[in-house]
Amino acid sequence: MSTPERKGAVVSNARIVLRSDRDPIELRQLVPGDSSGLFSLFDSNRSFIRNFMPGLNELVSSESELRKWIGRAERSPRIRTFGIWDGDELVGQQTLYP
Known about the structure:
Elements: E1 5-6, E2 9-12, E3 15-20, E4 23-29, H1 35-44, H2 46-49, H3 56-59, H4 63-75, E5 80-86, E6 89-96
Antiparallel strand pairs: 1-2, 2-3, 3-4, 4-5, 5-6
Helix pairs in contact: 1-4
């Protein structure tokens, strides 16, 4: 079975993936299984990220809290949370409010 594709968007097992033909960077909708990698990324860059995201310590206090947040975002019709991937490496996160 093929995966439906439209204008650079792929839906794979209910995960939205946005990609470009010109760049290895992808936006992949976060799922709870991404919480470990995202927590490590936030934790190792906490002092820098806090400048742009003052509530970081409350939101990302533990991997389990981050997993819950990703799960809530995944079920919400008002928010889309994406990981920014450079090949196989998670390098960032972006939240969109459609």
